[in-house]
Design brief:
Helix 4 runs antiparallel to helix 5 and helix 20 packs across helix 22. The chain is α+β, with helices and mostly antiparallel strands. A hairpin with a 5-residue loop joins strand 2 and strand 3. The strands form 3 sheets. The chain has a 4-stranded antiparallel sheet with strand order 1-2-3-5. It contains 22 helices and 10 strands. It has 3 domains: about 140 residues, no CATH class; about 190 residues, no CATH class; about 70 residues.
């Protein structure tokens, strides 16, 4: 990990950050202490001339990462979802990083396809186009299936990208190790930041995982009216190649094309926001890269989503908590919002609930006082995280990702309809989820699930009790009659649980 090639990479990286003016921006964003700033900049300055100039029209951080190449571009994109780590200002700069690079040749793509599918490409496709999109990790080709004539999109990883990313990630770890061993560096948690990046990127470098994400997302949303996903062609997908149906439609970012096709932009704006909230709350599984470049409008008016490399997941308990929090803000019941935080254990019990409620009112009231066109749920969540952090709540990565995606989706909705009222669209979705997940029907459903789980353990209960009694006998001599009685009672309890589990399976399935 600490070989000469990684040291050279770090020198080039530091020199480029310094030459483009990004070094100060990065150190400010991470809140680096003065001693660390002096040490880093003094070490880098002599090598400044080795840095890459980059495009001077870009902001400093964006300019540096774009100049340094694919791994750095992806690193910046991942950091843009973590304002808790890099700060809001730098996160916003990094959000505009363009994930586009010169494509590799069609011949190389065909060779990869043949290796991965283990047959000549022209046995599968009658034609393959030149790349229609090229990003830091993969590029996409339009192709036609030989047997059916259907159009498909074929995503192919860049040749050697796994090895290249592995080298850069090793260099990142070396940088993190060095920073941790400098004065004040450990509190920046550099190893955690790189580990998070590695987890995201390694997932994107295996297209089977993206295919699985797309398949799960499709199963969850199959009945969502006005929303569709390209179908995965599993037989033509592998670790380095992913084939799915071609998404034909107007780009979501092209209002002129959407208008020319006769679509209602107002309805589309409301639908894209409503769909995202449904996926996040109802399913706990949402598209976390839902910008205009990954959305189209089909000729029939359906919204088509694609590119499933980054997906967000929220467990059911957390969804319920945050639905109550959002509902409390919608109702402007700040005391209830505060109580939910305490009930969930998000805020330490020794804090004052009334003081916390007043802090939440300071978050909500200014937002509700805005014109409807400026109200933002993403901004609300951002402010909420700032307040909860002051009261001792630990940052949760999945909720930060939810907040960042919410900002992006709101941007898409406003680009379609600048007059959209975010709260009016969100309210029925949140209310419906609250009714289904916290009301009487939800309580019965939870009871049924609990009984099913207990029913599975019922037959094992007598043996578990007997084993516990045997273990106890090695410490003290048990009363034989009492022990047999406990096993008998456990047997009855096991039978009862088995019956309860069976009934639950019948009535709650």
């Amino acid at each position: 990990m600490r070989g000469p090639h990684n040291i050279w990479r770090l020198i080039r990286t530091g020199a480029t950050l310094e030459r483009t003016g990004a070094m100060g921006v990065v150190l400010d964003a991470f809140g680096a202490p003065k001693v660390l700033r002096v040490v880093v900049r003094s070490a880098v300055w002599p090598f400044r001339w080795l840095g890459i100039k980059g495009d001077p029209s870009m902001p400093a951080a964006t300019r540096a990462l774009t100049a340094l190449g694919p791994a750095y571009i992806k690193f910046g994109q991942v950091l843009s979802t973590r304002p808790d780590v890099v700060g809001e200002e730098l996160a916003n700069q990094l959000r505009v990083l363009q994930d586009s690079l010169p494509p590799f040749s069609l011949d190389k793509a065909k060779k990869t396809i043949e290796v991965e599918l283990e047959r000549p490409w022209d046995e599968v496709f009658s034609e393959i186009s030149e790349p229609v999109a090229a990003a830091s990790i993969a590029q996409v080709h339009k192709a036609r299936l030989k047997d059916t004539g259907d159009l498909v999109a074929v995503k192919v990883l860049r040749p050697g990208i796994e090895r290249a990313f592995r080298k850069d990630i090793d260099a990142f770890y070396l940088a993190a190790w060095l920073i941790e061993n400098l004065p004040g560096g450990r509190r920046l948690r550099p190893q955690d930041v790189i580990a998070h990046f590695e987890g995201v990127v390694m997932g994107e470098l295996d297209l089977r995982l993206e295919s699985a994400s797309a398949s799960e997302f499709a199963a969850n949303t199959a009945k969502d009216e006005g929303f569709t996903l390209p179908a995965i062609k599993w037989a033509l997908s592998s670790r380095r190649v992913m084939t799915l149906g071609w998404a034909d439609g107007a780009p979501m970012g092209d209002n002129a094309a959407i208008d020319a096709a006769g679509h209602d932009r107002r309805a589309l704006g409301e639908r894209v926001l409503r769909l995202f909230l449904m996926h996040a709350l109802r399913d706990g599984y949402f598209h976390a890269d839902m910008h205009q470049g990954n959305l189209k409008v089909a000729p029939n008016g359906d919204i088509i989503a694609y590119d499933f490399g980054i997906m967000g997941h929220i467990d059911e308990y957390t969804r319920r908590v945050y639905a109550e929090i959002l509902f409390g803000f919608i109702k402007r019941d700040y005391k209830r919002v505060a109580e939910v935080h305490f009930e969930a254990g998000y805020v330490p019990a020794d804090r004052d609930v009334d003081e916390f409620a007043r802090a939440l009112r300071a978050v909500g009231e200014p937002i509700f006082g805005m014109d409807a066109t400026h109200i933002s749920m993403g901004r609300l969540l951002s402010y909420l995280f700032e307040v909860t952090e002051r009261f001792g709540m630990e940052t949760r990565t999945e909720l930060i990702l939810l907040q960042r995606t919410m900002v992006v989706v709101e941007g898409v909705a406003r680009s379609l309809n600048p007059q959209i009222n975010i709260w009016e669209v969100a309210r029925p979705v949140v209310e419906d989820y609250i009714t289904r997940s916290i009301g009487p029907k939800a309580v019965l459903t939870d009871l049924g699930r609990t009984l099913r789980v207990l029913g599975r353990f019922g037959p094992r209960l007598p043996a578990m009790v007997e084993a516990a009694l045997i273990r106890q006998s090695t410490v003290e001599t048990p009363e034989p009659k009492r022990g047999r009685g406990l096993v008998f009672v456990a047997g009855l309890a096991g039978v009862a649980l088995g019956v309860a589990g069976t009934l639950a399976a019948v009535f709650f399935s």
